[in-house]
Design brief:
Mean pLDDT of chain A: 94
Structural class of chain A: alpha+beta
Radius of gyration of chain A: 27 Å
Strand order of the largest sheet of chain A: 1-2-10-11-12-13-20-17-16-15
Distance between the termini of chain A: 25 Å
Oligomer: homodimer
Chain lengths: 802, 802
């Protein structure tokens, strides 16, 4: 994986068995730890070498100017970028008089292991210094799920063959030098050294740095406490300056002796609280963590994850790499959202600076479904963050001449940061994506209080947006003109089906919520007439259709466009947007990512089974998957239309997006939505799970390679297990009252007394549809799944022939 | 005019009778002098106060980065901006020990007068210094049409009532401080001090500065020679430093005595020649100018303009303001193009820095028609400049995945500088505009040599572009998808009729030229088959039409769009692009500027008379004229469809665009295309002149307010005069062999023996079509035309009610 063979395939961990400096940046992303509030990239303890040093606090960003050579009305003037805050990971080591640096001396062994059940990142290395002195270093690192402001490191160094003088430097470092990025020099200047020093302190084993960002005026505090254990009473001193606070431990170890350091780091940030308040906040958190102790934190972490896996685990028999990948995916999605708590879930989580740390529609569309059925409280928090940004979204709607709220295409604090409006402002579907996430969460959890206090506001304001954005034609159909759907290879089109259908759901959901909460509806100024309008428009949304081809049109006129000339496009010319001008891409039939195909999954009832088959086949021939969000959607619809091998190929692609670095940018952070997509491909694809309102249905069917698929879900206050075998599936109610499910459209009941077995009907879907030349999914076979082999198989997509 | 009453209305001059500091920036534009090679804004001799100091050399620019917050394939990385080169205008005056500065002391009188027949800018002022010493200053300035690198100043100061010690400082100044512009700070930094000093010299009465631009590496030389005349042997010294060369003249004048200074300035620039070569070039030009002498230059200028007016004059009886405006327009268009000689004709000429000094499609579409019939050699030069940029245009086409050549939307040196592709790269019609300018020039002049050496290359390469850009549908129609037409309130549309028809003309013209020049065609690789394809596609261009409304669609689907809500748009919300987002403007029926209406003029035969009437009426209701290029086109089609009062209103608007500063940006330079449009409105509107191939036709008809319109044309090696009266017109052949014309479609012959009188048929066109609320043209009546009154009448458009 990650282009090399140093990673092993195993069900509950990701292990790297040797160090490859070439893939260090990617390893920092896959080994990143986070709880959604604090994020640490998997940088080496000693800080160097590194790909990208990274310590992130969710929501902690800096402004920078957005430059336009030719500006326009409504263009956002200010960008936002996540900043690298005070690094608390660093523990430097001096062996006699030589720094422990893996680029020098001799490295006997180096292992890193991310344990998905314990939530710990382990590292073990044996190294001989250039002068010939050998040490063994063991470190374990965590970002706590239970104490959200806390991260901790356990570090141990052992003298292997000779006595050795050891100096450990445990640090807090602000304004680390970062590799230069190639963007706007003014933005780079702002982000290069984002923190202004306010206070530094070192007292005994305690360190503290407090800084403030220059533009966004966010106060950032980091504090560390240490426990040192070792023979011969190690000498411990500490010191601090504006950007560095340092604890120094000096010890001489005899052969076989070890020096141990436990480091607890507390983070805090605030845009409003005073310096003393933020200082006290981190000191209090630190005191609590120290009181819990290292082992206490480790135990809490394990218990937290046990609970998570009981709710969320997916077991795959027949493809150990996919088994590993889906658990890796579940773990990282949990890390991204677990404790985000009224902050966004960025596209890269807190694993890197890709997309500037922004959140997009994929949070609601790809990440929140997984969390809805596995960690619903994280969904409520993510949507509360959207709710908190409603004033900004209302202002933006006014600015655009619209009613209601217009949520941003990309943002950290809720303000629009997209500088290219045809693929930003015009992508209004983000508003329906948010609304549908509300509806999904509310119907799955029956969290009436959330709907009343939070959800209804989001539903009403987005519904109002659609009314002002769309129009009724003289035959009564409801059109939404001039918008961009999920597929960014068409832009500013009329009647994008995905947008229209999702807007319809949004309108209907708003009316339903207002009916359930008449008091709140009245507060929001919603009257009977407005609700009637919403219901009326919801059934009138227009779905362009080509009678000639008997397929739906992704947007009006789409199928009349010229087909992209795939035969004349070479494999090196993908992704297309880096090799062809937008004007040419936009005017032709070519699809970057599932759009109509996604609509057939999210708005399943709007299409007949026959339409789904025809549409899926047609758009398969046009979809080049130049977005990481595509394969998982195609997997789901390939499965629904019976093309199980194709679904499997796509599921594997989604699952290995980061582990195999398929888009060559895992170094910038993980693709959280594609990771969630791996779950979606398995559960909604091979499990055929669909949830709408209070209905939950399944239509499971496995590809040949898989022997069994098991997944867990939490929904309607129940916990379920679904086991899928080649010819039948087994439904088990693990917790909660009896309930009705559907299996291939037929209702049945499950109770806690016994599992229910259902046979899987056989089907012959016919020949699988063709994809564009050079962009077929790599064919996955069971034989392709052994350890060390899958990587090349899936990345082969980049090079394969017709 | 220019919002105040200090300008007089007179037929052959523009006179300002007092100084208004508030309109100084505008006055600098309207009093700008230029020959197309050197441009001097009408800054005061003493340099201050000023709006924008400006000295421009056509083609002399600097690069600057084009910033993109979100970049894209094919986006140009480098912008270009005209730079303010060495200022040779400045003559400072010290009166006793006080600087002559109109902001201090007492200003008794101040007149400036641009004489359109002599081509001289005169200034006369009487001023009393704060200490009470009165002087009279008279200066005359010229930029020579006959010696293209030469400008000259005659300056005289007279002691009025007391003896006075005078110090004159005549300067060359590089890197003048400019008012800050609000754009990208990096671009501003580059342009603030664009010249690197290479050499400075002052010897006796001769000054010289040589600089080089930093990025574009253009060497710029300016040299000045002086003749001083005055009583009591004035003391003359000179000195120079890197950015200033100065001649100082000291004299004491008795009451009534005068000191006179003549200053000759030569400019040269080159991207290739050495410093000694450029130095010699300016010294040689200066020697020639000094040998000609001030009076010699004045005489040459007058002779040059006499010839021009004989070819080009337009006389208007019944509206003295329009009379003045059209001559002002002709003069400035001449100034922009007369000696451009293988440089472009920028949108603002050399009168200011608006649009960064770039050239657009309006050169070929609006400016070159006027010059074709009045100064054809300037047209050949402008097109030779396009030809010189063919290699760049070919490279650009490849970059865009197209064949042939893709000319830039905006440029100085031929490279694309547009940073917003939907209104830049997508506006492919510029290529057909260039091709049609070639065809117009060649058919008007029979300049076969030009066609063979230059024109055919432009025609062939643009024809190839269209073939690769368009597509044939399965019914055989030729479509061009995803382009932006002249109307920038629709963008990236399919089958823009203007683009399609113009592309058809282009294809046909290329085939015709290749038939006439088979040898050159073969050299260009054009074979019979390619020519046949061009002819075939030319007749197959698709023209979208609404059967329901019985009008053509500006582009496919246009008439199905939602109408802009004009009733809810307030007058302050125009121009729309400054108050509404593009997404909303693009998706609705609203027209920034004539597009289909322009097509009905440029491709007149593609529409029936009835279609023209219906189309014109329909698009009148949607056109808001947020571009200065619109009114003149609407004037022409209003006249053709018989709405003469409306045509008159639009003609006046076009004519007064700058004199009344209708768009509030005359300070940045004149709207050369709108000035040319004033001519177009009169000649093609009220004269009904149409030229296509070897046919020349007229359909004259005057609005009630005008008593007579006379215009001159040079075409087919003849010179014509056309006089239009209310009920008849008179055609006179002033020079050349007998020829056939058409009057209202009927052929007749004129010879040099006698004028031909033709009656004008009467017509009742019915009610004039309505315009959008708040955007109706100001109604012009004969009563509105007296001096000092017209300004308010025409600018009233901004405030008028429904």
């Amino acid at each position: 994986m990650i282009v090399d063979d140093s990673y092993t395939v195993e069900p509950w961990a990701l292990s790297e068995t040797s160090l490859d400096l070439a893939t260090l940046p990617q390893s920092e992303s896959v080994f990143a730890l986070s709880n959604g509030h604090v994020g640490w990239r998997g940088n080496l303890d000693e800080g160097e070498p590194h790909g990208l040093p990274g310590t992130y606090l969710n929501g902690c960003f800096e402004f920078h100017p957005l430059p336009y050579a030719e500006g326009g009305y409504g263009y956002p003037e200010s960008g936002q970028s996540v900043i690298n805050v005070t690094n608390g990971k660093t523990v430097r080591l001096l062996v006699n008089d030589e720094p422990f640096d893996l680029r020098n001396g001799h490295l006997h062994s180096h292992q890193r292991r991310l344990d998905l059940r314990s939530g710990l990142l382990h590292r073990t290395t044996t190294w001989t210094s250039p002068a010939g002195c050998t040490v063994k270093v063991r470190s374990t690192r965590m970002v706590s799920f239970t104490q959200r402001t806390i991260a901790a490191v356990s570090y141990e160094v052992q003298a292997v063959d000779t006595p050795v003088r050891i100096v450990l430097q445990s640090e807090l470092v602000a304004n680390e030098a970062l590799p230069t990025s190639s963007g706007d020099p003014r933005a780079a200047a702002v982000l290069a050294s984002p923190l202004e020093a306010e206070e530094d302190e070192a007292q005994d084993t305690r360190l503290r740095l407090i800084h403030c960002t220059r533009g966004s005026r966010l106060r950032v505090a980091a504090a560390a406490e240490h426990v040192v254990q070792g023979p011969h009473e190690p000498r411990v001193t500490s010191e601090s300056s504006a950007d560095v606070a340092r604890l120094t431990v000096i010890s001489t170890l005899a052969q076989g002796e070890s020096l141990q350091l436990q480091k607890f780091i507390a983070y805090g940030w605030s845009g409003t609280r005073s310096l003393p308040a933020v200082r006290d906040q981190v000191e209090a958190a630190l005191a609590a963590a120290k009181a819990t102790g290292w082992q206490g934190l480790v135990d809490e972490q394990r218990r937290y994850l046990n609970t998570f896996w009981a709710r969320a685990d997916v077991e795959v028999e027949g493809d150990t790499q996919v088994q590993q990948a889906v658990r890796f995916a579940l773990f990282h999605v949990l890390q991204a959202g677990a404790r985000a708590e009224q902050c966004s879930i960025p596209a890269k989580g807190l694993t890197g600076t890709g997309y500037d740390g922004h959140s997009f529609w994929d949070t609601e569309t790809f990440v929140l479904p997984l969390l809805t059925y596995t960690s619903p409280s994280a969904v409520a928090e993510a949507l509360r963050w959207r709710h908190a940004t409603l004033p900004t979204a209302r202002t933006r709607a006014r600015e655009l001449g619209l009613r209601g709220a217009a949520f941003p295409w990309r943002t950290i604090d809720g303000a629009e940061c997209s500088a290219y409006w045809p693929a930003g402002t015009a992508a209004f579907h983000v508003n329906a994506d948010i609304a549908c996430a509300v509806m999904r969460y509310v119907s799955a959890t029956d969290d009436e209080e959330f709907e009343r206090s939070t959800g209804i506001d989001l539903l009403v304001e987005t519904a109002r947006l659609w009314v002002s954005l769309g129009r009724r034609d003289n035959r009564g159909a409801f059109h939404i003109d001039g918008v961009t759907g999920p597929d960014e290879y068409s832009a500013v089109t009329d009647d994008n089906i995905y947008t229209n259908l999702m807007a319809g759901e949004n309108l209907r959901g708003a009316a339903d919520a207002c009916e359930r909460h008449p008091g709140r509806a009245a507060e929001l100024g919603v009257d009977i007439r407005e609700m009637a309008t919403w219901r009326d428009l919801a059934v009138r949304v227009y779905m362009p259709y080509s009678d000639e081809l008997q397929v739906h049109e992704q947007n009006a006129g789409f199928t009349s466009r010229q087909r992209w000339d795939f035969e004349s496009t070479s494999p090196e010319q993908y992704p297309l947007l880096l090799h062809f001008p937008y004007f040419d891409i936009y005017r032709k039939q070519v699809v970057k990512q599932a759009d109509l195909v996604l609509a057939m999954y999210t708005c399943s009832d709007a299409f007949t089974a026959e339409q789904k088959k025809r549409n899926f086949a047609y758009y398969e021939g046009l979809t080049v998957r130049d977005s990481s969000l595509s394969a998982c959607c195609q997997a789901v619809m390939a499965a629904e239309t019976g093309h199980l091998q194709l679904a499997y190929d796509y599921a594997v692609e989604a699952a290995l997006m980061d582990l195999n670095d398929l888009e060559r940018n895992t170094k910038d952070g993980l693709h959280i939505a594609s990771l969630a997509g791996a779950w979606m491909a398995l559960v909604c694809g091979f499990g055929g799970m669909r949830h709408a309102g209070h209905s939950l249905s399944f239509a499971p069917r496995l590809p040949d390679a898989l022997k069994k698929l098991t997944f867990h879900m939490q929904i309607f206050d129940r916990r379920l297990r679904v086991e899928v075998y080649p010819n039948h599936s087994v439904y088990t109610l693990l917790k909660g009252a009896r309930m009705t499910l559907r299996h291939y459209g037929v209702e049945f009941e499950i109770t806690d007394s016994a599992s229910v077995l259902q046979p899987i009907p056989s089907e012959s879907p016919g020949r699988a549809p063709a994809q564009p030349l050079w962009r077929r999914a790599a064919e996955r076979s069971a034989a392709a799944a052994p350890s060390h082999a899958g990587g090349r198989s899936a990345t082969a997509m980049q090079q394969q022939g017709p």
